[in-house]
Structures are given as structure tokens and as C-alpha cells.
Amino acid sequence: MALLVVAALVLSACGGGGSRSGTGVSHPGSTVAGAERQGGTAVFALPPATIPNYIFPLTTLAHFLVVDTEDFQYLMYRPLYWFGQGGKPLLNEELSLARPPVWSHGGRTATITLKPYRWSDGEAVSASDVRFWQNMVTAEKANWAAYVPGNYPDNVVSTTVTGPRTIQFHLNGSYNHRWFLYNELSQITPMPAAWDVTSAGAAPGSGGCAASMAKCKAVYNFLINQAKDARSYATNRLWKVVDGPWTLQQYQTTGYAVFVPNRRYSGPVKPHLARFVEEPFTSDAAEYDAVRAGKVDYGYIPVQDAGQQRATAAQGYRFAPWVGWLIGYMYINQHNPTVGPMLRQAYIRQAMEELENQRGWVRTFYRGYGTPTCGPVPLKPSNPYVDSYERSCPHGYNPKKAVATLRAHGWHVVPRGVTTCARPGTGAGRCGPGVPAGAKLVFNLVYVSGNQPVSQSMQDLKSTMRGAGIVLHLSSEPFNTMAGSVVACKPQQPTCSWEIYDFGFGWTYAPDYYPTGGEIFGTGAGSNASSYSSATNDANIAATHHSSSPAVFRRYEDYLTDQVPVLWTPSADYQLSVIRSNLHGTLPQNPLAAITPESWYYG
Questions:
Q1: 335 and 304 in one domain?
Q2: Which of 601, 26, 7, 42 is nearest to 278 (CA)?
């Protein structure tokens, strides 16, 4: 989701669209049986100011984004298990490469049987390809964005290939089967022997990583260097070996990409389209201009233009809001040497949260296409995980409560001025450990540029914060600039200079679909850029990994809801989609943000 997750909401700014190399309005081909038509081109509009620019599935944090995984890699390289069915965040057995795991040895062994898929070079997708991934992710876990210490791959003691398409995972304990499938096995992407090399043109498998973890470093370094050369994505022989329904025909570093069907695709749904095009845009204004000009087949209406549904319908588009399996939040650097000690105080985070008018933002700035985030579990789409406590939004908008909380913890609150710590130290009525006398509640907040709802929300937040004497120095930056700044770090490191960042989205629960939050809230987790750390939370997360009890999950959920480990923000609809009326097979939209253009057809 990466994400860094993995969801992007519709942005708004002035600017031009992406490059178009010979694409235009779709031209469906000849009619076949029924209403379907084979052929034609579908142009899919990418989220504004975001481009797919990383092709290797073992992804680093900087590229752990929906636009790189669900919108790009998954078209070519299928994960072991596919999720998203009927508009819900559920396992899709039909589209998965493997059958559901069979458990044995007291729940400590998972046996996985692959379906008879083939790579585009003719080789079978095999158990050895799964082991290739497993060896590499274990050897290079520190470079993998989804790594959580103690979880996958640490909880896999060993693997045993028992047949060409069968592999066993031997675990270090007995786990909640749903969690292990939805959050651990879900992260596996089989890799072909053609990638198990250390130089261009080497014999497939000669790198030895699939057989020995000790050989993986050299293979990884070679693949990473190849992945850094984005200009060669469409021509590099490595990336031509795919097991997904599409292969990359053309790619530009602007993010413009053309896919054509993989003729050897073994999956149940073969592509109907002759070409699938991903079109980048620098702003949603430019994208919307392309929609109105009929140059996009699957695009979106900017939030501020949501009232234009009738106009787009008259142009031959149907309107379909895309609700994502996501939570919204701002990243806060709890290891910043200056403001970190303050942001590590739960009561300060709670007070700041109570100064966010999320419901007002959704109603006014997001035109109703979103929902508040009140805890670690999405309130929408409908799901069995969110409980009544989180739904009550215990730290919802309440400025009076926020001011009272600060005063009760030793702060001299100066409305419209600057609030300072008057009673430093630990214990009741004190500012808390690490917060010195005279410390000021003054923060630098950077938000993504070109996002009108976020910009409006931040201006409103600045005003309400001032009412409690909290000063926000606001600035905006492009998404890609921000993405390079927000990293987890240790105190005193130069990278710890950032304070609060708002990308306009938070986290799509993918490839961890069971919303236990270990990847983003666990101590030391690869995507825990805020550096939040709580032994209680870690224990609660661990308990959900071993028990399927609803009470165990509620304990985890309610604790984080109260802790406010990050600053929750609205979960905006992923986008307000407009889809050409004669383009079928597009609905329902996957709440995990994955797209399946192989199922689209004109008719």
C-alpha cells in the first residue's frame, strides 16, 4: 500500500499532463461471441504527480507504493496469493497462483501447492521459484520495506521443496492461520530462474540463490542495479520474463507505460484488450482536461469537481467512487532531536488529534467522499474488524478537551500565542520525559503540493492549533520530494530533521491485508517511518498473530486507537473514478487498489 502504502487520493493543482506517445481514444476491435470485443486500447489515468518507477518486486521503502506494486509490478509478476474479491479485502482463490495452504504439525507447517502456471519463457512457475524469493527476502530483509523484526521472514525456520509445485514452510510457532495467510504468505512473489543470475546473459539459475541463501547477496546486488535503470524496463531481457497477464512493451521515465498481453499467461482470465496504457499526469486538473477531451478511458474527477458527474455522464462515462482498504494519517518523527520528545508523549498526540476537525474536512473539503480515521482499522468498506470503541472516535474534534489536557500535563497554554512547558519532569502534572522547561509546541509541517483538500485541511488545522497555542509552520512539496525525506531514523542522525509530513494518505493494508498494523506500528518495522514504539503495542500485535480471538484483536485495536501513534487524518476515497460506459469488467473496484485490466473489454 505502502504502501507508504499503498493508496493515493486525487490531487489538485495546475500543470500539464504526462506524455502521450501515440495513444488516444480507445478503438475496439472485431466482435466476438456475446457482447465482448477483442482488441482495443484502454488508457488508465495514474494518480497525479505519482509515477511507477520500480519494477523489482522485493521493494525498498522509497518505492513501497500502490503505483509501483498494484498498478505496475502486479500486472507482470503475480504475488503468490491475490486479494480483493467482490469489492471486499478477501482472498481471491481463483486469481491466486497457489491453492490455500494446508496446515499440519500443530499449525507449525504450511504446505503450499502451486497451480500449473508458466513463465513467459516457457518455464514452469515452480516451488523453486518460491524458495528463490524466500532465500532472497531472508538474506536481504533489511532492504525490504515490508520487514517487521520477528515476523516474516524471521518466523520461517526453513522451507522444504517436496515436489515441482509443492513447498513446505516450517514455522517457529503456531500462528493464527488467517493472519499468516493474509499478512505473511501474501507478501511472497515467486521469482523466475532467469533472475537468479549475477550478470547479464548468464545461464538461468547460475546465481544459486534459489538453492543457497549464501549466494543471494550477489544476485540481489545485480537485480537492484538493473532495477535502478528505469530507462531499460521495456527492453531488459530480465523483466521480459513474466507470469502475469501483461508484459511491458514501452516505458518512459515520466511514468508512461504501454502493456501488451502475455501470450503465455496461464491464469483464468486472458486479456481481451490489445493494449493497456498507463498515463501519468502532473495534476488532476490536467487529468480532468484529458477526461473531458475523451483521451482517458478510466480516469477520475477531482474532489473539488465532484459536482460534474452529469457532465462526464453526458460524455459517455459512468461514475464510481473507489473506496480503499486504508487509513489516513500524518507521519510524525518521534526521533527528531528537538520535537521528538514532545511527539513521544501520548497526551500531546491526543491533544493534537482533538484539534483536527476530520468530519468537517470530509464534509467540506472532500465533498463527502471520505471518512474519518479514528484508529488502526478502516471504518470503510464494511468489515468485521472495527469495533464500537474505535467507531466512537474517542479523540475526535474537541478543542476544549485538548487545551484542558495540555494544562493538566504542565503546559502554559497561550491561545493564539505559543504554549510552553511550565512544569518539566515526569509524573502527574508534568510535561513528560525529555521535555525541557520552556519547550515550545512549535512544529514544521510539510504537506503534499497540488492537493486541494489537503491544503485546505492544513490551513484549517493551523488555525485550530493556534487556538491551543500550538504553532504550525506550513510548507508544501511535491510527492516524490517528500517520499525521499520521510524515513525512520535514530536520534541525532541528519535524516531526523523532518518533523510532520502529510502525504494526503496514510496506509493501504496491502500486502498485509489483515489489519494488525505490525508493518507500520511495530517497533522497528520497515514502514514505521514515525518510529512509534510501545512494548504494550508490540505485545498486542504479537498476540493477534497467534490467536484468532476477537477479544485479542480488540485489545490491540483499542490500545492504538487511544494511543494515537500517528496523527489520524481522513481516509479519502481512493479516487472518484469515471469509466467509459462501454468499457466493461471494471467493477467492482478492488479496495486494495489493485487493477486487473485483463478482465476489461469493450462491448
A1: no
A2: 42
Dist CA 542 CA 63 (whole Å): 27
Residue 219 lies in a domain: no
566 plus 580 within the same structural domain: no
Rounded distance between C-alpha atoms, residue 592 and residue 87, angstroms:
9
Of 515, 514, 511, 556, nearest to 538 by C-alpha is 556
Query: Tens digits of per-residue pLDDT, 212-271?
Result: 999 999 999 999 999 999 999 999 999 999 999 999 999 999 999 999 999 999 999 999
Identify whether 588 is preceded by a cis peptide bond (ω within 30 of 0).
yes
Domain boundaries, position 278: 41-75+243-324+576-602
Q: Give the SS3 label for residue 168.
A: strand
Distance CA 77, CA 423 (A): 57
**How many Cβ atoms from other residues are within 10 Å of residue 551's Cβ?**
8
User: Per the structure block, which three cell numbers stand in for 36?
Assistant: 465482448
Nearest to 177, CA basis, from 546, 571, 555:
546
Instruction: State the Cα–Cα distance between residues 507 and 519, nearest whole angstrom.
Output: 10
**Helix H or strand E encompassing 83:** strand 82-85
The CATH number of the domain holding residue 493 is 3.10.105.10
Going by pLDDT thresholds of 50, 70 and 90, the confidence category of residue 526 is confident
Same domain, 483 and 335: yes
Question: How many separate domains does the chain show?
Answer: 3
- Alpha carbon of 205 to those of 211, 222, 387, 423: distances in Å? 9, 13, 49, 64
* CB distance 19 to 273 below 8 Å: no
* Residues 6 or more apart whose Cβ sits within 8 Å of residue 90: 83, 84
The 3-state DSSP class for residue 394 equals coil
Contacts of 22 (CB under 8 A, 6+ apart): none
* This prediction's pTM: 0.86
Please tell me whether residues 113 and 131 are part of one structural domain. yes
d(CA 26, CA 294): 9
Nearest to 290 by CA among 19, 67, 601: 19
What local confidence, expressed as pLDDT, does residue 36 receive? Answer: 57
The residue from 174, 192, 213 where one domain ends is 213
Task: Give yes or no: residues 157 and 48 share one domain.
Answer: no
pLDDT at residue 178 greater than cutoff 70: yes
Residues 402 and 511 in one domain: yes
